[in-house]
Specification:
elongated; mainly beta
């Protein structure tokens, strides 16, 4: 399972909205610390004994990690057309208070690239859109390294009221 469940206790968000005559550009930058449970993506490649892993990882399959996140996006709206992109990254390192008998470090990261184009029919409120998403997950457990990636393409229809 590829899971990260995190809490963001605080952060900073900068947002700029500008009109260029008709078109509108919205940019956002967000960053802050994260804390949570992370299923290590590289655990399958770890060849050491499970007994040297932190207790929670050995028993439950995840570790407590601390790190941070960064999100940057841009959206362009020109009449009924919109196009946008977003980059999101998270990184974690093991912070358990377990004594690591042989010092098994664990770390994981996630990078997500999103892009979409849409059309908003203001008469009906219907907004069809095409989107693409690329997710890249990488991690390490001791000397084991692993990365996985997926790309999603899709079409969606929403409504704006």
């Amino acid at each position: 399972m590829d899971r990260i469940a995190s809490v963001r206790p605080f952060g900073i968000v900068f947002q700029q909205r500008g009109a260029l005559g008709g078109p509108v550009v919205v940019t956002t930058l967000e960053l802050g610390p994260d804390f949570g449970g992370v299923t290590p993506v590289a655990i399958a490649g770890f060849s050491g004994a499970r007994s040297v892993l932190p207790t929670v990882e050995a028993a439950r399959g995840y570790y407590f990690g601390a790190g941070g996140h960064l999100r940057a996006s841009v959206l362009l709206e020109a009449g009924p057309l919109s196009a946008g992109g977003e980059f999101h990254a998270q990184g974690f390192r093991d912070v358990s208070d377990d004594p690591h008998p042989v010092g098994i470090p664990m770390a994981d990261s996630l990078a997500v690239f999103d892009g979409a184009v849409g059309y908003w029919d203001r008469r009906t409120g219907v907004m069809p859109r095409l989107f693409v998403c690329r997710r890249i997950r990488a991690g390490s457990v001791g000397d084991a390294r692993e990365s996985v990636a997926e790309t999603s393409l899709g079409f969606g229809v929403g409504a704006v009221f």
